[in-house]
């Protein structure tokens, strides 16, 4: 702190110091793999506080991207019981008050609790608003004391960026630094966060969203708190990769590496987290049956970081089948997005696979947007494999989540409600492909159809720190 003051006093140019919080694998991809962190480090002195990046990982990231980013050695303790209880109550009241579909679906097994909460809200919406304001203020106050403020006393920052602003640990950090009048910026990392993760229990100066849909959601949900944050729509940083001409691997090299004949068509199945859909291996088995009935097709199965690799091991040695795993283990599934740092080539390999496939199969995930950004047709799985599950635990429920509903209305993908329907969609897509501008159709969700998101975020950060 003293050194920075002395340099400013002498008239030397000093980079502003920014603390970057990374507690989620998705956020790591959006910040690091997109090249955004590199661009930020060229302009500012960046220190990272992370639950998944240690000294070894930081050294490798700095080497790979040719930058000098520091690592803050401060422990972020897990959420305590008091905060967990208060946040659950807050989330229940918040979701009922705003009639959020996602939460209603998630608590279908607790109908009595939900009905009671809904009755209370209808009884007095004004009381509900008061309760939400009170709870948020209480949680902010408690979370401020959840961390040891002395851990930050030796550091001076001009601002703090929260890349997972629905995470209470990041909220706690922002709240501690707010006591020292350090400004904050929140980057909402995914399209589902505002309607599935509860409330941001921290007051930010700037809030960045992917698109105008999310911006409207934020305004609707947070107006009751009477904040003065500035809202910015920036697009999706990692999607810049899809619109850059450079490719990590040519189509010929991609096919040669996987031993896929030049004339073969490619089905790409991107799985989702196991906790959302336990029977994705049944879908993989159905796709294998399809390619066995139709020679000249290869299947690539890319396992989600929080999926179970052991479910796909039986398919590893089959002809024309390629199973891709991430570098994590089953034992880490429950805490995957808090501890697992994606491989440096994670984003480039996804881009290459999407660019080379003829159709993408997905399960209610952001891949719906990724594939459309690469102008690829999408088939969305809406059946439970060999099972016929009740709606509260069926994959069907995932498409009724709040963030999925506006995308459903666009009709850019084909829904497969059965194995037979999946096969019919595959026949139509592979045998009679129709030209379609999926990128233009999905623009309301990705905001840009060119590589402008990183630059837009940089402009917002510059304005925020001015």
Question: How would you sum up this structure, described in words?
Answer:
This protein is α/β, with parallel strands linked by helices and 466 residues long. 44% of the residues lie in helices and 12% in strands. The protein contains 21 helices and 13 strands. Strand 4 (159-162), helix 9 and strand 5 (183-187) form a beta-alpha-beta unit. It starts with a helix and ends with a helix.
In short:
The chain contains 21 helices and 13 strands. The protein has 466 residues and is an alpha/beta fold.
Features:
Glycerophosphate_synth, 12% strand, six-stranded parallel beta sheet, disordered N terminus, globular, TagF_C, 3 domains, UDP-N-acetylglucosamine 2-epimerase domain-containing protein, 466 residues, seven-stranded parallel beta sheet, Rossmann fold, CDP-glycerol glycerophosphotransferase activity
Overall 3D form: globular
The CATH first-level class of the largest domain comes to Alpha Beta
Calculate the mean pLDDT score and round it.
91
Instruction: Give the CATH architecture of the largest domain.
Output: 3-Layer(aba) Sandwich
Estimated share of beta-strand residues:
5-15%
Q: Any idea how many domains? A: 3
Percent helix, as a range, is 40-55%
Q: Report the total helices.
A: 21
Distance between the termini: 19 Å
Biggest sheet, strands in spatial order?
A: 3-2-1-4-5-6-7
CATH topology of the largest domain: Rossmann fold
Low-confidence stretches: 1-12
Main sheet?
7 strands, parallel
Q: Structural class, from secondary structure content?
A: alpha/beta
Fourth-tier CATH superfamily name of the largest domain: Glycogen Phosphorylase B
| Computed CA radius of gyration, to the nearest angstrom | 23 Å
Pfam families: Glyphos_transf
InterPro entries: Glycerophosphate_synth (IPR007554), TagF_C (IPR043148)
GO molecular function: CDP-glycerol glycerophosphotransferase activity
Protein name: UDP-N-acetylglucosamine 2-epimerase domain-containing protein
């Amino acid at each position: 702190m003293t050194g920075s003051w002395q340099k400013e006093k002498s008239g030397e140019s000093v980079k502003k110091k920014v603390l970057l919080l990374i507690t989620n694998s998705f956020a790591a991809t959006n910040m690091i793999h997109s090249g955004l962190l590199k661009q930020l480090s060229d302009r500012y002195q960046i220190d990272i506080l992370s639950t998944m990046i240690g000294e070894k990982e930081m050294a490798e990231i700095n080497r790979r991207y040719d930058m000098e980013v520091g690592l803050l050695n401060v422990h972020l303790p897990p959420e305590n019981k008091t905060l967990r209880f208060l946040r659950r109550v807050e989330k229940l009241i918040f979701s009922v008050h705003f009639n959020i579909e996602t939460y209603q679906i998630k608590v279908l097994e607790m109908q009595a609790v939900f009905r009671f909460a809904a009755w209370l809200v209808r009884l007095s919406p004004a009381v509900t608003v008061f309760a939400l304001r009170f709870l948020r203020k209480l949680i902010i106050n408690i979370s401020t004391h959840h961390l040891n403020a002395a851990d930050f006393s030796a550091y001076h920052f001009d601002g703090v960026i929260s890349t997972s602003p629905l995470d209470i640990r990041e909220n706690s950090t922002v709240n501690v630094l707010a006591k020292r009048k350090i400004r904050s910026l929140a980057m909402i990392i995914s399209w589902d966060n505002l309607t599935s993760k509860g409330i941001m229990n921290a007051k930010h100066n700037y809030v960045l969203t992917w698109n105008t849909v999310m911006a409207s959601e934020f305004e609707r949900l947070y107006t009751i708190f009477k904040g003065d944050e500035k809202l910015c729509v920036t697009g999706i940083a990692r999607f810049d990769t899809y619109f850059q001409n450079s490719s990590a691997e040519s189509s010929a090299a991609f096919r040669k590496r996987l031993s896929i004949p030049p004339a073969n068509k490619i089905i790409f199945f991107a799985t989702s987290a196991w906790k959302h859909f336990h029977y994705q291996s049944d879908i993989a088995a159905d796709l294998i049956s399809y390619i066995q009935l139709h020679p000249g097709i290869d299947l690539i199965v890319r396992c989600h970081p929080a999926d179970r690799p052991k479910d796909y091991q039986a398919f590893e040695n089959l002809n024309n089948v390629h199973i891709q795993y991430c570098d994590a283990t089953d034992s880490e599934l429950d805490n995957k997005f808090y501890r697992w740092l994606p491989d440096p080539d994670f984003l480039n390999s996804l881009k290459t696979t999407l660019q080379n496939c003829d159709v993408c199969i997905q399960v209610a995930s952001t891949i719906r947007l990724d594939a459309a950004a690469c102008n690829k047709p999408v088939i969305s799985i809406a059946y439970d494999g060999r099972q016929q599950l009740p709606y509260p635990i069926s994959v069907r429920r995932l498409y009724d989540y709040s963030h999925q509903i506006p995308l459903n209305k666009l009709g850019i993908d084909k829904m497969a409600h059965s194995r037979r329907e999946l096969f019919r969609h595959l026949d139509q897509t592979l045998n009679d492909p129709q030209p379609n501008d999926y990128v233009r159709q999905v623009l309301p969700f990705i905001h840009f159809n060119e590589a402008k998101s990183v630059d837009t975020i940089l402009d917002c950060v510059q304005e925020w720190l001015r």
